[in-house]
Amino acid sequence: MQIYSGAMQTTSVIFPEPNRVEAQQVDVGELRPDQVRLRTHRSLISTGTELKCLQQDFSPGGAWEQWVQYPFLAGYCAAGEVIEAGSAIQGVEVGDRVAGFGEHRRHPAVAADYMAKIPDGISYEEAAWFPLAAIVQFGFRHARLELGETVAVVGLGLLGQLCVRYARRAGAADVIAIDRSARRLEMAREGGATNCLETGVEEAVEPVRDITGGKMANVLYEAAGAADVFAPCQRLLGNFGRLVSLGDTGHAECQSMTEGFSTRNLTLIGANNDIAPLTNWPHPRSGEVFMKFLQRGDLAVSDLITHRFPVERAPEAYRMLLEDRTRAMGVVFTYD
After folding, report:
1. Strand order across the 9-15 sheet
2. Helix (H) or strand (E) holding 178
């Protein structure tokens, strides 16, 4: 039976048109049998993705244009309490705490394949990182990182910071963090980076060569989401290196292969996790791993949270990020 539906109103962050943000009252909508409805406590801005959506920073005719239709419901990292469960939901009940792929909305609907239970001792704002952690885990599993390999991470936003932390825990011998922001590099160092290069990717080739004794990186996680770094990233990899593309640029036609891609037998790995439910590691299972790491202290994300805004002040949060996204890392909306 539908409990919350029809004309019930809820606060939602919306991009009515490019470069405009509003916190509006909208209908909650109907709940599908495979969904739960949350009372959101915290949601996390996925800065790179959401600013692309806000600024319409993608080429026409592609997947981004199909997805981003204005007015656009922003966000996909939410954590809260279940207040309603669809008829097909199993293992989750009203009152349970869950995190999932839900919009910046006070009462979002989240599909069973895209959520994970929050165990005791984990806060809502930590759990809200689960969707991003699931994306990074997906990239790590496909890269098949081996114990003692060298990892480079280009772009130290939210995904890049998680890459650094997962790489150390996965047994990388060296984790080379590359970004132009000194503040982001300091966060990466605190998260386990062994070498921090305050430089662009083009200028990082020789430093990476020095660090690795000429062997270059075995695995590179591209988390910058910028088309112009794609080719330079290939130059940081050694023979049989793997380039994991975590940041979808929105401008695929501007990305190019270098000569070294063939001569050094490089491998390009896509990491779009929309197909995760079809694999042996669907999102709920990845969520269990993420939450377990948090519980044991093997992974931390709370130190990456730099700003909190009531959801009603969403325009202010995005304005800050548009002015200088390097001022912030984890930006959380509160719903108290």
Report:
1. 22-27, 9-15, 72-73
2. strand 174-179
b or e along 26-35 (b: 16 or more beta carbons within 10 Å of the residue's beta carbon)?
A: bebbebeebb
Q: How far apart are CA 82 and CA 18, in angstroms?
A: 32
Which domain, by its residues, includes 320?
A: 9-129+301-334
Its pTM stands at 0.94
Distance CA 292, CA 137 (A): 14
Q: Quick check: helix, strand or coil at residue 101?
A: coil
Determine the angle formed by the axes of helices 158-169 and 47-55, rounding to 10 degrees.
160
Cα 40 from Cα 81, distance rounded (Å):
6
Taking the CA atoms of 199, 202, 203 and 209 in sequence, report the sign of the dihedral they define: positive
Dist CA 194 CA 209 (whole Å): 15
DSSP label of 105: B
The CATH number that applies at residue 253 is: 3.40.50.720
3-state secondary structure of 68: coil
Number of structural domains in the chain:
2
Radius of gyration of the chain (CA): 20
pLDDT over 50 at 1, yes or no: no
Residues across the chain: 336
What is the C-alpha separation between 177 and 174, in angstroms, rounded?
Answer: 10
Q: pLDDT for 151-174, tens place per residue?
A: 999 999 999 999 999 999 999 999
Determine the pLDDT at residue 244: 95
Q: How many CB atoms lie within 10 A of CB 267?
A: 15
295 assigned to some structural domain? no
CA distance 168 to 80: 30
Average pLDDT over residues 20-46: 96
In the Cβ-directed half-sphere of 103, how many Cα atoms lie within 13 Å?
Answer: 19
